[in-house]
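To illustrate the input format used throughout this study, we show a single complete record. The first block contains the structure-token representation of the backbone; no residue identities are included at this stage. The design step must infer an amino acid for every position from geometry alone.
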């Protein structure tokens, strides 16, 4: 999913949840001014503290803009490995950064913002504020299972106004269309809906169903298998606005963009990917639970490789670290894994290299256990990733490496099946990336 705003100079402000805004005093136009009242509308991430009485004209136009979502994914701790829709109750500001948005998974996202409108006595920069209105807006975006369709809802609430009538209208304008050459298009290319404060209070939720059609022109650099998936990108843009009968024109906030990607991969193979046919192209996170009885031994080994790589085999003789670890600490975070599905020969090469390493270190009998059960040669990164054991030549001590260890076959199979289920349910295609997040 990607939400993006145009960046400008950052303003040093503390972050906290903005609940309401009251004018410290309502003034009239300065003597001699003859211009008509004008209005300004601004949208801020919920959680950004704007001082009471702050004149919106004195703030940078893009205050609250944020980096590209693909570079800064914020998936909150309440998501699971199996994607579920996001609800209004779940959406909340990110308390660590006050960005006001969360991505629950590749199929569900939301954004919570504070909308503020000010009316001025005249267009001149020194004209006083004569009216104010504010609202909190929560938008949720849910892809629909086994469809090329999304349900988009916006909720307006916590509305306050002073110096302006409740007949002013808060509105939503959306556009949707192609990103690349081809036939991609949306069934609703442009919509505009607005209601008065009283009407929003009576019916606070706006509901829209978005259907995506067509396909991008195939990229010659892609393999035939990837071209067959018909990966297609769309751009959905939302703009909030206010219509104030007491001021001239329509006041608009900056637009918010969301990139969507759709394909037909589910129809080609149900063992490849499922879920919606459309996703937000963000990097998913697999939750690594070391306390899960059925798979905890495998999860603990991966956690060890991530935190103490030198203690694993082949260790520092084959790299400095293992990739795939997500962390809010940039010094610990490592590059994500990349799914490998179509190239079965590369998967087989990863498996063969891992098993040779197990034999080298534990001997040819590593599969035999004293309790009569058997071990598998468990490897991280997985055989089903571009980053697997055969990713680079042997005896290359720098860069990303791999780790192997004999693990009870039942545990190994259950864990690998859980990873496969995660990539299938989250619609992670060949070449898509994902992280692992150790819960401990």
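Output of the design step:
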């Amino acid at each position: 999913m990607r939400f993006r705003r145009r960046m400008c100079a950052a303003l040093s402000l503390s972050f906290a949840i903005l609940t309401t805004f009251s004018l410290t005093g309502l003034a009239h136009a300065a003597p001699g001014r003859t211009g008509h009242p004008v209005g300004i509308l601004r949208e801020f991430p919920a959680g950004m503290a704007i001082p009471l009485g702050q004149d919106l004209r004195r703030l940078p136009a893009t205050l609250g803009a944020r980096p590209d979502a693909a570079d800064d994914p914020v998936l909150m701790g309440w998501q699971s490995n199996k994607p579920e829709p996001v609800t209004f109750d779940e959406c909340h500001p990110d308390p660590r950064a006050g960005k006001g948005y969360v991505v629950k998974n590749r199929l569900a996202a939301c954004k919570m913002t504070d909308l503020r409108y000010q009316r001025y006595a005249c267009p001149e920069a020194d004209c006083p504020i004569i009216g104010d209105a504010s609202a909190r807006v929560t938008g949720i975006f849910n892809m629909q299972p086994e469809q090329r369709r999304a349900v988009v809802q916006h909720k307006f609430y916590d509305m306050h106004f002073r110096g302006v009538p409740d007949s002013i209208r808060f509105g939503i304008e959306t556009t949707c269309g192609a990103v690349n050459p081809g036939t991609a298009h949306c069934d609703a290319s442009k919509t505009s809906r607005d209601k008065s404060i009283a009407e929003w209070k009576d019916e606070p939720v706006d509901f829209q169903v978005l259907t995506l059609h067509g396909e991008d022109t195939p990229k010659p650099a892609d393999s035939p298998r990837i071209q067959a998936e018909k990966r297609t990108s769309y751009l959905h843009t939302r703009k909030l606005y206010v219509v104030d009968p007491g001021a001239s024109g329509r006041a608009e906030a900056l637009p918010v963009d969301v990139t969507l990607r759709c394909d037909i991969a589910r129809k080609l193979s149900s063992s490849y990917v499922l879920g919606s046919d459309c996703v937000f192209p963000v990097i998913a996170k697999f939750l690594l639970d070391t306390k899960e009885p059925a798979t905890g031994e495998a999860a603990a080994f991966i956690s060890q490789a991530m935190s103490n790589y030198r203690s694993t085999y082949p260790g520092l003789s084959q790299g400095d670290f293992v990739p795939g670890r997500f962390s809010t600490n940039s010094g610990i975070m490592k590059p994500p894994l990349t799914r490998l599905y179509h190239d079965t020969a590369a998967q087989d090469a990863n498996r063969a290299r891992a098993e040779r390493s197990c034999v080298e270190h534990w001997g040819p009998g590593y599969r035999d256990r004293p309790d009569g059960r058997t071990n598998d040669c468990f490897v991280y990164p997985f055989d089903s990733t571009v980053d697997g054991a055969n990713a680079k030549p042997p005896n290359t001590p720098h860069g990303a490496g791999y780790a192997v260890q004999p693990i009870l076959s039942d545990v190994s199979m259950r864990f690998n099946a859980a990873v496969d289920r995660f990539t299938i349910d989250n619609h992670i295609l060949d070449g898509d990336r994902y992280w692992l997040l150790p819960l401990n």
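Structural context for interpreting the output: The chain has two domains: 2-279, 284-438. The two ends are 27 Å apart (CA to CA).
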